[in-house]
């Protein structure tokens, strides 16, 4: 359980609470996006005026997980200090630190994603994963990680959480997510389990539409409920609700609309708070997502979101201040309800020690940065951890006829079918690292990246070309193609084109979805590497040639097609 506040912390909470105006209280219940301010983010004069008018309680900083990491640690820390100096009350700074602090800040350590951590399946590594996320994160100004993901991959077509979760087994997900969370919170970073009541059952994306967790009550408690209860019992400080409906609990639909957790009192207060005993801060998922926008007018959405039991609304926009002032005066939002949320937010701030920030906005609990990184010894440990997880996660899912490992003596000429054409305007050069590493071994690498006509490969074969190995590496970045994690478009055409060839046995390497066998059941070999994390790519190439062993155990049932495909994706299985 989370520790009780000390006398000093409790006194600070009460003093601060008593000093707040209505507008300042409202501000504690909203989180702003620092990257979307209507002026240059570090313009002192504009910031001062802004925070006077809109006294927000927390800011989201850093790259969004659906985009990419950005910026330098020192710049974020300086920015956080500047905002702390200007703000009348201490602020919290959150970020999508899902795969280490490097998933939000470019200069810090990025770890393999959670699915890779699950493939390594080691609680001690998971604790370190949380610990170094916290040490680097807090050094860069973060005090609140919107992580770890506690969703379960129960539908292979789910396009949102693919590698952002700990697999499909509730026991393992609970064990590892609990360890990541303890690592974070023991080192000064509030964790936020997400997304309650659980993503991964639907094949749709709540950025676009309200999705549905269609498990029965009994199934839900055995799966998501088990993970959530473990996180709560272990003292997670915050929980994020998703734009996800839970029909067994909130079956009645309003005007035929599914009811997302972000507006559901039954889910947020009845289930999460009362039945499961969660006492920390409830944060909504981003309120600019389609799964929330569908609920009704701006006013209805916001009031329902707050009234259902949400303590902090993520990116409601500054109109929220005026709306809440009206709602309180008209009685549609009760003062007791607002006060309860403000208290919870202040208690979180006290637990994290942000009330001890000095006059210059400096955080006494943060490890100092040196050249934009942790001090050398800690920095080295963080990087070693990253490599260890990479070594331990690479998974050999299928190896028919013992194709792997390849013999380096006899493998001279190879084919690489580059499948990953992503949405216009998004270039992902990291796939080229795979090709460069093959060339660095002195291999002749032929690349097929155009698929007109479909018979290109067959034509090459008929001209007498033979390859000692053929690779089909696959990568689709999160939201690189909204609504899917599967090979689509040109990548799907490549699957068709490959089957025209008669002399190759393609080796699939997925740097994304673990379910490539669903779309490429003909593969004789499949490696799941989970990401284009630099060291993972390097070690994958070494594993191909037998220089390092495959150590990962698949954290999902990757070969659903052995037998009959369960089209609902709700395969129930024992590990």
From TrEMBL:
Domain Glycoside hydrolase family 3 N-terminal intervals: 22-348
Keyword field: Glycosidase, Hydrolase
InterPro entries: GH, Glyco_hydro_3_AS, Glyco_hydro_3_C_sf, Glyco_hydro_3_N, Glyco_hydro_3_N_sf, NagZ_Beta-hexosaminidase
Species this protein is from: Paenibacillus sonchi
Similarity section: Belongs to the glycosyl hydrolase 3 family.
GO biological processes: carbohydrate metabolic process; peptidoglycan turnover
EC number: 3.2.1.52
Protein name stated in the entry: beta-N-acetylhexosaminidase
Matches recorded under PROSITE patterns: GLYCOSYL_HYDROL_F3 (PS00775)
Catalytic activity entry: Hydrolysis of terminal non-reducing N-acetyl-D-hexosamine residues in N-acetyl-beta-D-hexosaminides
């Amino acid at each position: 359980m989370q520790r009780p506040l000390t006398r000093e912390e409790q006194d600070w909470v009460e003093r601060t609470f008593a000093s707040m105006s209505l507008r300042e209280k409202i501000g504690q219940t909203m989180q702003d996006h620092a990257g979307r301010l209507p002026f240059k983010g570090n313009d002192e004069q504009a910031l001062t005026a802004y925070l006077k008018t809109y006294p927000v309680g927390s800011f989201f900083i850093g790259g969004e997980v659906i985009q990419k990491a950005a910026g330098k640690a020192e710049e974020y820390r300086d920015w956080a200090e500047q905002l702390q100096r200007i703000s009348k009350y201490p602020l919290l700074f959150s970020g999508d630190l899902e795969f280490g602090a490097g998933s939000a800040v470019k200069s810090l350590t990025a770890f393999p994603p959670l699915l890779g951590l699950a493939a390594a399946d080691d609680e001690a590594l998971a604790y370190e994963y949380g610990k170094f996320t916290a040490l680097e994160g807090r050094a860069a100004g973060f005090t609140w990680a919107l992580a770890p993901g506690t969703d379960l991959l129960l539908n292979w077509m789910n396009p949102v959480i693919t590698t952002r979760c700990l697999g499909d087994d509730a026991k393992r997900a609970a064990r590892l997510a609990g360890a990541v969370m303890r690592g974070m919170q023991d080192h000064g970073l509030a964790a936020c389990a997400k997304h309650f009541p659980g993503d991964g059952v639907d094949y749709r994306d709540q950025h676009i539409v309200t999705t549905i967790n269609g498990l029965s009550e009994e199934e839900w408690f055995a799966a998501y409920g088990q993970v959530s209860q473990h996180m709560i019992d272990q003292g997670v400080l915050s929980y994020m609700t998703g734009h996800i409906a839970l029909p067994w609990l909130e079956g009645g639909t309003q005007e035929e609309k599914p009811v997302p957790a972000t507006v559901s009192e039954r889910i947020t207060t009845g289930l999460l708070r009362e039945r499961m005993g969660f006492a920390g801060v409830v944060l909504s998922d981003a309120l600019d997502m389609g799964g929330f926008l569908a609920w009704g007018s701006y006013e209805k959405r916001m009031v329902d979101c707050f009234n259902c039991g949400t303590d902090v609304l993520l990116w409601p926009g500054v109109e929220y201040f005026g709306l809440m002032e009206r709602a309180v005066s008209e009685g549609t939002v009760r003062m007791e309800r607002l006060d309860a949320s403000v208290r919870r937010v202040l208690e979180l701030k006290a637990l994290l020690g942000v009330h001890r920030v000095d006059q210059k906005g400096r955080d006494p609990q943060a490890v100092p940065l040196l050249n934009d990184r942790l001090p050398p010894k800690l920095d080295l440990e963080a990087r070693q951890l990253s490599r260890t997880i990479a070594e331990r996660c690479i998974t050999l899912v299928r190896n028919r006829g013992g194709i792997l490992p390849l013999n380096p003596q006899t493998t001279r000429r190879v084919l690489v079918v580059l499948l990953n054409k992503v949405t216009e305007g998004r270039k992902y050069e990291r796939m080229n690292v795979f090709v460069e590493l093959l060339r660095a071994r002195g291999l002749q690498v032929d690349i097929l990246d155009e698929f007109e006509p479909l018979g290109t490969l067959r034509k090459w074969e008929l001209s007498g070309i033979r390859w000692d190995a053929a690779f089909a590496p696959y990568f689709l970045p999160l939201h690189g193609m909204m609504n899917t994690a599967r090979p689509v478009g040109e990548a799907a055409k490549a699957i068709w084109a490959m089957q025209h060839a008669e002399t190759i046995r393609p080796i699939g390497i997925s740097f994304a979805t673990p379910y490539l066998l669903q779309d490429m059941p003909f593969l004789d070999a499949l490696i799941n590497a989970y990401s284009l994390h630099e060291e993972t790519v390097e070690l994958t190439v070494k594993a191909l040639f037998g220089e390092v062993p495959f150590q990962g155990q698949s954290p999902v049932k990757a070969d659903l097609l052995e037998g009959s495909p369960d089209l609902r994706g709700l395969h129930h299985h024992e590990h």
